[in-house]
Design goal:
Elements lengths: L2 E19 L26 H10 L4 E5 H6 L5 H5 L5 E6 L2 E7 L8 E4 L2 E2 L27 E5 L14 E5 L9 E12 L4 E14 L4 E12 L2 E10 L17 E28 L2 E24 L5 E4 L5 E4 L3 E26 L3 E27 L7 E4 L1
Parallel strand pairs: 5-8
Antiparallel strand pairs: 1-18, 2-7, 3-4, 5-6, 7-8, 9-10, 10-11, 11-13, 12-13, 13-14, 14-17, 15-16, 16-19, 17-18
């Protein structure tokens, strides 16, 4: 049995000839005009003291995780890097962070940008089923140039960012350097099943023509073989399900069904991006940037479901709470799925200072988020429809 479900969303946005007075720009920020929100993009290059100074001088309340801080932790994706900031709580799925909440507000009500360009949602399975949130597990941590969370919003920010906006920063060549070569490799063991986890990233960049042209490229990769052993149960709070004379406390929760789940996942996450920046003079900058990021996951799901445990209870042991029931049913399923989630973005723009008074910014951007979820097969085997002579199959 095969089922294919494809969800894709596109956003094209442009901002041309946006005029702002240069004197109004904060000392420690550069304008990120364009997209659908005029969000300040803070360029953070390192030390904690520098981050604190940026936060102090900013016109909004924000928290920043610079590149150096992200590299210190074994975080696998952007959601896990963001959870280390104050006021951020992650929403995990299959053992790792996927969405984030800002100050307790649902993830569907937060905005997400890359270098100031608003991003589209990529996974509709958000906790409150709004389908508007960006899934941060599609971004390898090694691809990030830094992340910032803006918690006090200005009127020019989209309404979708009610509690805050997460801005992902691209990798850049550090100020004062003419090149960058940065690489890392890591590995480990997922303890539950002893399966391997490994990742790596590489960033290379160079300045040319007396630092007028800079080129940078980054790549991040991670692969794991996680497993989940899960037991889930449902209860019936109904005193009439047990025979007369049963101890009252045993009727408070009748064990109705049990689900034994053994899942095996194989996820490959990778992202690459880069850009060109050309500065013909000290007051003009032209840039082209982009990235492609996402993951592919194969899941082998094995489920044993026992239902109807409390439908026909024959007897109850008042001493230890075990009970005997007839009519229970069992079902075993093997499910194989493939899931592909990704985000892609391209932006082209520039800025220049006119007569030392007015800054003109222009940007054209394109972004896409998509999910492809393919259900390969479901094999079901009804291993016991009814048990006329049941054993003890449940307990309270």
């Amino acid at each position: 049995m095969t089922k294919s479900n494809f969800i894709k969303r596109l956003l094209c946005s442009a901002s041309v000839a946006t005029l702002t007075m240069a004197a109004m720009h904060p000392v420690h920020a550069q304008s990120a005009a364009g997209g659908s929100a005029n969000i300040e993009t803070v360029v953070v290059t390192g030390a904690r003291e520098q981050v604190q100074e940026v936060k102090k001088q900013a016109q909004v309340i924000l928290d920043i995780a610079p590149l150096d801080q992200i590299r210190l932790m074994p975080d696998s994706n952007a959601a896990e890097a963001l959870q280390r900031l104050p006021g951020i709580s992650p929403e995990a799925d299959t053992g790792e962070g996927r969405f984030i909440n800002i100050r307790g507000m649902d993830t569907d009500l937060n905005g997400t940008t890359f270098d100031g360009v608003r991003m589209t949602s990529s996974n509709p399975a958000s906790p409150m089923s709004g389908g508007r949130a960006v899934a941060f597990d599609s971004f390898p941590a090694g691809q990030l140039g830094g992340v910032e969370v803006i918690k006090s919003l200005t009127p020019d920010v989209d309404a979708e960012g009610l509690r805050g906006v997460v801005n992902i920063q691209p990798r850049t060549i550090p100020a004062g350097q003419d090149h960058i070569i940065d690489a890392s490799v890591a590995g480990g063991i997922e303890a539950l099943h002893g399966s391997p986890v490994y990742k790596g990233d590489l960033t290379v960049g160079q300045r040319f023509f007396d630092d007028k042209l800079s080129v940078i490229f980054s790549y991040g990769f991670e692969q794991d073989h996680r497993g989940i052993d899960d037991i889930e149960a449902d209860y019936i709070n109904d005193p009439t399900t047990v025979p007369p004379g049963t101890s009252p406390f045993l009727t408070e929760k009748a064990f109705d069904d049990v689900q034994y789940r053994w899942y095996q996942y194989h996820r490959s996450r990778q992202g690459f991006g880069g850009g060109f920046t050309y500065n013909p003079d000290s007051t003009t900058s032209i840039y082209l940037r982009g990235f492609n990021s996402g993951y592919s996951e194969r899941a082998e799901k094995h489920e044993l479901v026992i239902t109807g445990l409390a439908d026909a209870i024959q007897s109850v042991n008042n001493t230890n709470g075990t009970f005997t029931s007839s009519g229970a049913k069992s079902r075993y399923s093997d499910i194989t799925t493939d899931e592909d989630v990704g985000n892609h973005l391209v932006e082209f723009g520039g800025n220049t200072l006119i007569a030392d008074l007015v800054t003109m910014d222009a940007r054209v951007s394109w972004t896409e988020g998509g999910l492809t979820d393919i259900l390969y097969q479901v094999d079901r085997d009804i291993i016991a429809r009814e048990r006329p002579d049941p054993e003890v199959v449940g307990t309270w």
